[in-house]
């Protein structure tokens, strides 16, 4: 293994050792270090992704530092250094990353970065976004995007027709399929001024896109306050929606933990009391098709089709344990039987409306057991299993839960 990999933090080394996203046996590791330390291959991510020697399936390991934003259509795993519970790599000048036109049959990843804007478009291949902290994400016409352990907190727009409004944190458009797991999303706050700006939406799903949100907290931005000029009351801003689903789009929302919430943005008010109050947003504004369970959601404006199943749909979370193990917890109805599916080819089978797609290549299936009265069951998996010779090193897990019918959970990557 390259000497840098041995020097990286344990978390980064685990990622580097478990990712070979396109499955190519000869994939290479490349080192990017803005300070040009030992074993450095490139000092710029822009140069690294543009170099002809860097090919689909390669891994780019990025050392601590600040780097310019980049744009690539290669199927790469681009992994920032992470240690002490902190992200060590910052993208700035420009602060945006664009991943686009990733080829079909490939896997890519972006992990452990701080940036402002993430743009993902026209991707036939699959992409995992993990441990990324950003202001906004825009996904358009992508076959399979999975966001895990990430934070998207939008700010107030500075260049728009109404610069006082808060930005939308995540917009999913075109015909895209996106999964968001164990993440925090919040629309931007409306600016307080003579007239308050409207809060931004947490997640806006448009076109014919499908989104699955699991074990996540999503909030609309609050409306801005209005300050009075003389005797004239200003107009306060309205709150943003936590989740907005357009007429041809679909959403599945599952929970199981206390942080599984859709929270509306609160309307602003006129500070002097002349202009009244802005409108609160909706926790869920559904004009398409949605299925929601196990989630705190107070205000629902359903103008489309909404299912709220009981018992709630199952969900899956993971945490890393000492000694090389990962603990998986499946939330579901007591009495349900649970199997864990581990795959090196986690492509998705087509699913009916409002059903979770399943991985169509389940390489290993592990019998977990029966969910007890607590509504959850755990399984500790050795991360070294089954790292057999010649196997691809990206593993994605999904659980199937049977209770008078089979439902699949969200997926989670194993690294």
Describe this structure in words.
The protein is mostly beta strands. It has three domains: 1-134, no CATH class; 146-309, no CATH class; 315-413, Immunoglobulin-like, CATH 2.60.40. The chain is built from three helices and 36 strands. It has helices spanning 3-7, 10-18, 45-50; strands at residues 29-32, 59-62, 65-67, 71-72, 77-80, 82-83, 86-87, 89-91, 96-100, 107-114, 117-121, 126-134, 136-140, 144-148, 151-153, 170-173, 177-181, 184-186, 203-205, 210-214, 217-219, 243-245, 250-254, 261-263, 284-286, 289-293, 296-297, 300-302, 305-307, 315-321, 325-331, 337-343, 364-370, 376-382, 396-402, 406-413. The strands form six sheets. The chain has a 16-stranded parallel sheet that branches. A nine-stranded parallel sheet has the order 4-9-11-13-16-19-22-25-28. The relative contact order is 0.09. Mean pLDDT is 88; it is low at 1-25 and 387-392.
Task: State the distance separating the first and last CA atoms.
Answer: 17 Å
Beta-strand residue fraction = 35-45%
- Low-confidence segments, given as residue ranges, are 1-25, 387-392
User: What value does the Rg take, in angstroms?
Assistant: 22 Å
- Helical residue percent band: under 10%
